[in-house]
Each structure stands twice: as C-alpha cells, then as structure tokens.
C-alpha cells in the first residue's frame, strides 16, 4: 500500500476523483472487485494498471457510504441518555 503519486492525484482530481491509495498485489488474486477493505477502511477502486504479467496496481479512493462499522464502534453501540 502506498499513497498515489502527485501526478496521479492531479489527473484524477481533474475528473472529480479523490485518489488516496495505491495497492499492489498478485494479479491472479484480483477478481475485479470494486470495493476493497484494508484495516477496516473501505476503498473504491477507480482504476487498475497491470504493471507486470503477474502484478496489478489498484488505484483507490475513500467514498461516502463505504465505511465499515464494527461491533466495537462506539457510535454503533451508544445509547441515548435523555
């Protein structure tokens, strides 16, 4: 996992995207997923790039509505105290 380059950030920003991360993985493990989870954070895949025959790069952004809520989330477990 790496941050996207400044040129990637600029180019994607020009078309309304908010690039944040680049994930590199074995191409055989990628099955066209459009949302990936990394450490409890969901990222939307907006672009892929096959950098080698067996390596693929996933360019991702966080989007509203893709957050992961866990049982330990205080907002999920809080009760209204009125």
Give an account of the 3D structure.
With 82 residues, this protein is α+β, with helices and mostly antiparallel strands. The chain has one domain. Helix content is 16%, strand content 38%. It has two helices and five strands. The chain has a five-stranded antiparallel β-sheet, with no helix packed on it. The longest helix has 9 residues, at 6-14. It is globular. The mean pLDDT is 77.
Global Rg: 16 Å
Number of E strands: 5
What would you call the quaternary organization? Answer: single chain
Average pLDDT taken over every residue: 77
Alpha-beta classification = alpha+beta
- What is the element string, with H for helices and E for strands? EHEEEEH
Uncertain runs are none
Helix percent reads 10-25%
Our estimate of the beta-strand percent is 35-45%
The gross shape turns out to be: globular
């Amino acid at each position: 996992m790496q941050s996207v380059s400044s040129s990637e950030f600029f180019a994607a920003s020009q078309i309304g995207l908010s690039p944040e991360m680049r994930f590199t993985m074995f191409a055989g493990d990628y099955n066209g997923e459009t949302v990936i989870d990394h450490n409890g954070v969901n990222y939307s895949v907006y672009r892929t790039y096959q950098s080698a025959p067996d390596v693929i790069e996933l360019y991702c952004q966080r989007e509203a509505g893709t957050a992961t809520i866990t049982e330990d989330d205080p907002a999920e477990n809080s009760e209204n105290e009125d």
